[in-house]
Amino acid sequence: MAIRLRVKEIATAKGWTQTKLQRAADVHPSTMQGIYNDPYRDVAYSTLVKIAKVLGVDISELTEEVPNEKS
Questions:
Q1: pTM of this prediction?
Q2: With 0-12 CB in 10 A as exposed, 13-18 as middle and 19+ as buried, what is 31?
Q3: Which of 5, 15, 35, 59 pairs with 44 at a CA distance of 20 to 30 A?
């Protein structure tokens, strides 16, 4: 199983742009860009905590387990 980040889809559904979320969560722009462009990126737990707090969701909602695409 792989972990896929759901940050982009949750933020979009709640009306957050990448830039506004990045600033509100105090996340480096290149980190947020990486999260948006690569949902399988390794991200520090502390970063996900900050994003979850801004989005008003539990941190568990920002990730999901998906089957590995590689065989």
A1: 0.90
A2: middle
A3: 15
Average pLDDT across each block of 10 residues of the chain; the chain has 71 residues. List them in order: 95 97 97 96 96 98 87 46
Is 51 within 8 Å of 27 (Cβ atoms)?
A: yes
29 neighbors 22 (Cβ within 8 angstroms): yes
Hey, how many other C-beta atoms are within 10 angstroms of the C-beta on 23? Answer: 13
